[in-house]
């Protein structure tokens, strides 16, 4: 049996009054190659901000340059991963009306 590795991240909040909630994930059976891509991107993003970040630093997509995002996507496209995302448009007015 082969062990699968899954990384998840969310954007937005289910409980707050935000318009969208997104859940994204990446699935791989070879996490070492994936770890290298994200670690490299996190290190490079710290250098772009003229400050050093540890290798374990989180890679913030919104703060990354277009070139950095393109680099990550190109490297992910060359690896054996599956990427998925789910975005929910919350309609709190309708929910509250029927609750």
Low-confidence stretches: none
Number of domains: 1
- How helix-rich are the residues, as a percent range? 25-40%
Largest sheet: 3 strands, antiparallel
- Average predicted confidence as pLDDT: 78
Radius of gyration: 17 Å
Strand arrangement across the biggest beta sheet: 1-2-3
Distance between the termini: 46 Å
- Principal-axis shape equals globular
Order of helices and strands, N to C?
EEHHEH
Q: Number of DSSP helices?
A: 3
Keywords:
3 strands; alpha+beta; 26% strand; 3-stranded antiparallel beta sheet; 99 residues
Set out the fold topology.
Layout: E1 5-12, E2 20-28, H1 31-48, H2 66-77, E3 81-89, H3 92-98
Short description:
The protein is α+β, with helices and mostly antiparallel strands and 99 residues long. Helices cover 37% and strands 26% of the residues.
What does this structure look like?
It is globular, with a radius of gyration of 17 Å. With 99 residues, it is α+β, with helices and mostly antiparallel strands. The chain has helices spanning 31-48, 66-77, 92-98, and strands at 5-12, 20-28, 81-89. The longest helix is centred in the middle third of the chain and has 18 residues, at 31-48. The chain is built from 3 helices and 3 strands. It has one domain (5-98). The termini are far apart.
